[in-house]
Every structure is written in structure tokens, then in C-alpha cells.
Design brief:
single chain, 430 residues, Dihydrodipicolinate Reductase, domain 2, Alpha-Beta Plaits, eleven-stranded mixed β-sheet, 19 strands
Length: 430
């Protein structure tokens, strides 16, 4: 590609943290020119200076102007949210524009509809930045590892929750205290419900699983559980037992071709590579038949890591457009069938249980009898302490058992007079 080549014009939707990072990353780009930058509020102060250029004169509040401009070939969407982003991306595709987006909510929720439309209009949607920020996981699955048949994806997909769990481990602080610290440092939004509930990770996992297994995933079918119930005691006990607690996204293909896909806190062994992913970092472990196990670790969010992935997608499109305006088959969604999802009740796991009981003889035997009735086998049981109110804290690790059996046992245990409370139930990933 020579420097004399005519520059590809792009339109940028959004000039917030990520959008302004993209502007910085594209300064003096030899093949790309930002023609317009669409924002919802022109009065808001933005840092769009650098490299001897001031991009503020490109701002417009008429977002439809960007998606309909005949000179713009690539529309970059970093507005976030759903409805406005979907409407604008849909219009851009209908106007034969290629799309680059960092919007995981959009891809996970409306991806099927948008990919079908893009295929019909012979344009591409690139979305590397929608999952794990600067980690090149999507194009790694779609290109570099495309010869593989994947059997499993396990990942730490949300930096906010990983930061909170790291701080709870290092400082022995409560979940609430670490959440406030994360918000103060800018690692968590003021409203961080999507992060701590696991919803953000579920969006990302659905995207990765759809690519890896060549089947569409309905986001509402992804079992999702957050970290709100995790306490410093749980983290301490996990450490003592040789584990670490992480919010894990897991997707694996079962022998019956159903996909076991879920997001929840989990005990993972300290020897697992993901156990050493700390702070705001993300990590994704992939298992392929040819490559074996491969783990990618890096910054899962942030201005410049995300901008790095966005600009990488722009460069990929520009390189392709230099020789053909036909959408490359490798970057067009070819599958239209939906995966059959395994219900969480049918999954098999080991479990960590923390139960508060009366401190009197026969309680452990009573619990053991109920577990035996439901075919739950105990691997280890410890009475941790006697509390001031006279209750006892008991922790247990089970052998592998179906979720429906452990839940049946817990339902019966909760009705037992000697059991005051089932304080936490955390799955163990071996």
C-alpha cells in the first residue's frame, strides 16, 4: 500500500473516553481520515487535540449525517447503549458502510439481526474491541486459530469484578468497600450493576462462544450470577484450600452437542493460569484440537487498549478495501442456527458450601444424611468456629455432582431446624 493512496474516510460515533482515544490513535494515520465525529451533546468538553490537529471542528450532533454521508466508507460506533446504537448501525449498513464497534451489548443482543443485514448488503462488521478491550481474542479465533475445533472457553472477562476480588484478597476488605474504591479510581461506573451482576461478562462470553462454536447464542439463555455474595471469609477459605475466587465465564461443548455456558463466581486452583490474573486485567483460556490450551492475558478495558483494538479493525478493513469492496468470507457471519443450551440444573460441578448451624451433637450427621439421600458426596468437611450466638460455621467441599442434586439437598437442609443459614454456595472448577 503506497503513501499516495487516497485515504479512507471514516465517521466516528461517540467522542467519550474510548472515542477520544481512537482520535489520538488515528493522528497522522497514512491511510485513514476522520471526516466527522458524532456526539449527543456539543457543549460537553472533550480532549480532541494532539499531533498538531484539533478535531473539534469535525463534531456534529446530527448522528444520522454520519451514517448517510456518501464519502464515509467506515462507521465506527463507540456510543455504547442499545437503541440509538442499533438504529444508527442499522442505517449505516443499509447505506453500504462497513462497521467497527466496541459495543458488546449491541453485538450480544442484536448481533444476529445486524450480521444478517450486513451479509445482505455485502459489508462487514468488525467488533474486536467489544470483548476484553486490548486483548486480540476475536480475530485470533476467527483467523489465526480458524483451523481448530474448539471445545472450551474459560475467561475472566470483566476487569471491574476482577479488581474488586483482587482487592478483597490483598486487603481483606468487604465487597462494598472494594466496590467504592473501584468507583473512586474509575475502574467501576457509578452504576456498576452490569459488572458486579455478571451481565457484562455474559455479553462477552456469548460473543466468544458464538464465534468458537459457530452457533448463535441467545443472551437470555446464558446463566448469570454475580459476586455480590462473596465475602472476605470466602476468599480466605479458598486460599487455605488451594483455590482462588474469580468471576468466571465458561462455555464448553458437551458430547450431545449442547453448550454449557454460564457466568458465576468459582473456586479455581492456584495452579490455573487464570488464578494469577489480577487487578483490572482479563484473561481468556481457549482449548482447540490443534493448538491445545492457549491463554491470552491483558488489559480488558481502558481508553487506549480499547482504541488499539478499534484501530486494528479499521486497519484490517482499510487493507481489504484497497483491493476489493467485496466482504471477505472470513469476516462475514456464515452461521444462522442457534445453539442448544444446557440448563444450569444439568451441569456437573464440585461445590464449596458455607453453612451456619446450631452447635450441638448430630448436626453434621443430619446434614450428611440429607446429602446422601440426594447422592451428594462430601470431599472435605470442617467446623470452622463457634460464633458468639452459639452457632457453628461449617464448610464443605463436595465431589462432582449434578447441580439439580446439590440444589435439592440444599433446599431440604434449609428446612432443617438445626441449620440457621446456608451462607454461600460457590462452584468449583477443577
Amino acid at each position: 500500500m503506497s503513501n499516495s493512496k487516497k485515504k479512507t474516510k471514516i465517521g466516528l460515533l461517540g467522542a467519550g473516553v474510548v472515542g477520544s482515544g481512537i482520535v489520538k490513535a488515528l493522528q497522522n494515520h497514512p491511510y485513514v481520515e476522520i471526516k466527522k465525529i458524532g456526539v449527543k451533546d456539543l457543549s460537553k468538553s472533550r480532549d480532541l487535540n494532539g499531533g498538531g490537529n484539533n478535531y473539534s471542528n469535525l463534531l456534529t450532533a446530527n448522528l444520522n449525517e454520519i451514517v448517510s454521508d456518501p464519502e464515509i466508507e467506515i462507521v465506527v460506533e463507540v456510543l455504547g447503549g442499545l437503541k440509538t446504537a442499533k438504529d444508527l448501525v442499522t442505517s449505516a449498513i443499509k447505506n453500504n458502510k462497513h462497521i467497527v464497534t466496541a459495543n458488546k451489548d449491541l453485538i450480544a443482543t442484536y448481533g444476529a439481526e445486524l450480521f444478517d443485514l450486513a451479509r445482505d448488503k455485502n459489508v462487514q462488521i468488525q467488533f474486536e474491541a467489544s470483548v476484553c478491550g486490548g486483548i486480540p481474542i476475536i480475530n485470533t479465533l476467527k483467523q489465526t486459530l480458524s483451523a481448530n475445533k474448539f471445545s472450551k472457553i474459560v475467561g475472566i472477562l470483566n476487569g471491574t469484578t476482577n479488581y474488586i476480588l483482587t482487592e478483597m484478597l490483598n486487603k481483606n476488605l468487604s465487597f462494598d468497600a472494594c466496590l467504592k474504591e473501584a468507583q473512586k479510581l474509575g475502574y467501576a461506573e457509578a452504576n456498576s450493576a452490569n459488572d458486579i451482576s455478571g451481565k457484562d461478562a455474559a455479553y462477552k462470553l456469548a460473543i466468544l462462544a458464538s464465534i468458537a462454536f459457530h452457533e448463535r447464542i441467545k443472551i437470555e439463555e446464558v446463566y448469570t450470577e454475580g459476586i455480590e455474595k462473596i465475602t472476605p471469609l470466602d476468599i480466605t477459605l479458598a486460599e487455605e484450600l488451594g483455590y482462588r475466587i474469580k468471576l468466571i465465564g465458561l462455555a464448553k461443548k458437551e458430547p450431545d452437542e449442547k453448550i454449557d455456558i454460564r457466568v458465576h463466581p468459582a473456586f479455581i486452583k492456584k495452579t490455573n493460569t487464570l488464578a494469577s490474573v489480577f487487578g483490572v486485567n482479563n484473561g481468556v483460556l481457549i482449548e482447540g484440537d490443534l493448538v491445545g490450551e492457549l491463554t491470552l492475558i491483558g488489559r480488558g478495558a481502558g481508553q487506549m487498549p480499547t482504541a488499539s483494538s478499534v484501530v486494528g479493525d479499521i486497519n484490517l478493513l482499510v487493507a481489504q478495501l484497497s483491493y476489493s469492496h467485496e466482504a471477505h468470507p472470513q469476516f462475514v457471519c456464515q452461521h444462522t442456527n442457534y445453539a442448544k443450551i444446557m440448563p444450569i440444573a444439568n451441569t456437573t460441578n464440585s461445590y464449596f458450601l458455607r453453612v451456619q448451624t446450631e452447635d450441638k451433637p448430630g448436626v453434621v450427621g443430619q446434614i450428611g444424611t440429607i446429602f446422601g439421600k440426594h447422592e451428594v458426596s462430601i470431599n472435605a468437611l470442617t467446623q470452622r468456629s463457634v460464633n458468639r450466638d452459639g452457632s457453628a460455621s461449617i464448610t464443605m467441599l463436595t465431589h462432582l455432582v449434578k447441580e439439580e442434586k446439590i440444589q435439592g439437598a440444599l433446599s431440604e437442609i434449609k428446612k432443617t431446624n438445626a441449620v440457621k443459614q446456608v451462607e454461600n454456595v460457590i462452584r468449583v472448577l477443577e
